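quick one: fe (ii) ion bound model?
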Amino acid sequence: MDNLTNLLQKRTPGKSLPREFYTDEDIFAEEMERIFHSNWLFAGASCEIPNPGDYFTLPVGDESLIIIRDKNGDIHAHFNVCRHRGSKIATEERGCAKALVCPYHQWVYAPDGKLTNARLMGDTFRPEEYALRKAHIREAAGLIFVCVSDDAPDFGPMLDAIEPQLRAHGLDNAKVAARHNYEVRANWKVLVENNRECYHCRVSHPEFCMSNYDLGLPGDTRGDAEYYSLLDSEYERWENLGLSPKEVNFPDGDPHRISRLPLKEGFLTESLDGNLVAPLMGDFESPDGGSLRIITLPNFWGHANCDYAMTTRLLPISPDLTRVEVTFFVDEEAVEGKDYDPGTVAHVWKMTSEQDWELCENNHAGIKSLAYEPGPFSTLTESSVESFVVWYLGRLEGAARAARPVARSA
Ligand code: FES
Ligand SMILES: [Fe+2]
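yep, here:
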């Protein structure tokens, strides 16, 4: 792919990417193969499918997975492709099914993927040879990750980083309080880049900034002595509480970051007035955990407070369209209307997310203009955007290398 090789050479470090990276169909196809079909993707939370037969589908480019819980409680990621003639099996986004029945000729699969009935296939047909094909699936403290590649990267480093810090938040004993879906008219990288800086937060996110400092992102140099001394004292307190607050920041180019950050004084959670919006979750006996932030590239970020958690999942549809699901979780015992109000739980992050989508759509619209040229990242506040771009280009460089003609010796 000469175009890609040229584009990679055209990129200036420290500046935003050339337009084609956000708009070109061929680049998008490479991203699907090299990034979305080769890495671990966040699929959802295991508590979203609490009962046997509960499932949701996950579209990833031309692939589609069915994430389903079987009667033993195990969760599977099946390719949503019938082993008869290839029809898509599950056509709904979510549901509960004792069996997965293909709509074409009604082959029937158990939630664990075994083919249990295939009518009119004759005596010699061997159903045991036609179980659904599986993708890799792993769970980390209640978060489900999947990989459609045969050759999945080692999940160990991500698990080791997420598990000890998220476990206390009790996501596997939680339930969905609210869910919001969006189709954002922007390239998926515009959304990730926006998430990787808080340069825009003070002006654009009044609700977020009530409880949060707009500091703490790696490479953001704006923190003052007062902020760092607060960080030190909070780290010590969290350590004493067993919260294991170790900042993990894309180690060795790995695609994950975990950090626990303090909320502003008087705020027990990310709410508008500082008060809790739901009962304490998981191991928390008092509201003193700050806010745990997790990012896994290419498609996930989440915040876990002591009373609610929020996950954001990106799924690219095309170069200029990204589907986003923002989900809010509370303790599974919490009673809606008595212990929590879904609108109040979701308020800060629904507002913040929707403000971001508007910023991203504006950003993408400007990138499409002939007048766009790559602009400089702030060295004071946008180093983490550069880190993401470097990670991204590293994934694509393999594609350019593979496409480069090999010199033959005479
Ligand atoms: S394609 Fe599924 S039963 Fe025929
Ligand atoms: Fe934002």
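Residues 194, 200-201, 205, 356 surround fe (ii) ion (ligand 2) (CB under 6 Å).
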